[in-house]
Amino acid sequence: MKRIILTLLAATAVSGASAHGHAARADDSMPDAQKIRFCERVRDHALQAFYNRERGQEMRLFTEDGSDGARITNHIIRRIYAEPQISSPKKAETFGRATCNEMMGSKLAPE
User: Residue 7 pLDDT more than 80?
Assistant: First the structure.
């Protein structure tokens, strides 16, 4: 759990602050490679949220401090809990990565 929190804190430290909004794009000053690495970490959070949902555990959200990292991650976690169509780990990973890439405005990472 500490690793997840430290990863999120590191991600939020490099993210620029932006207005609160569910689908707003993040700061464009971050290079695409950095955005892709960030979205890979968010994908891991999406997968963990899926497993937590399947075990019947309550939703664990990050404290929103105005940064893109917590806002994007929380948006994805909420959607995974709300949408029963996300019914497999692969779908959760795909949803997490695609949503993050869309919100960050990065090019899709090669698979």
Answer: no
The most distant pair of C-alpha atoms in the chain lies apart, rounded to whole Å, by 39
The whole-angstrom distance between residue 105's C-alpha and the CA centroid of its chain comes to 13
End-to-end CA distance of the chain: 27
Q: What would the two tokens of residue 26 be? A: 């993040």
Which helix (H) or strand (E) segment is 74 a member of? helix 68-82
Residue found by looking up tokens 């993050």 in the block: 100
* Alpha carbon distance 78, 59 (integer Å): 8
- Reported as type and span, the H/E element at residue 90 is helix 89-104
Query: pTM (2 decimals)?
Result: 0.67
Beta-carbon contacts of 71 under 8 Å, excluding residues fewer than 6 positions away, are 18, 20, 64
CA-closest candidate to residue 7, choices 52, 47, 50, 37: 37
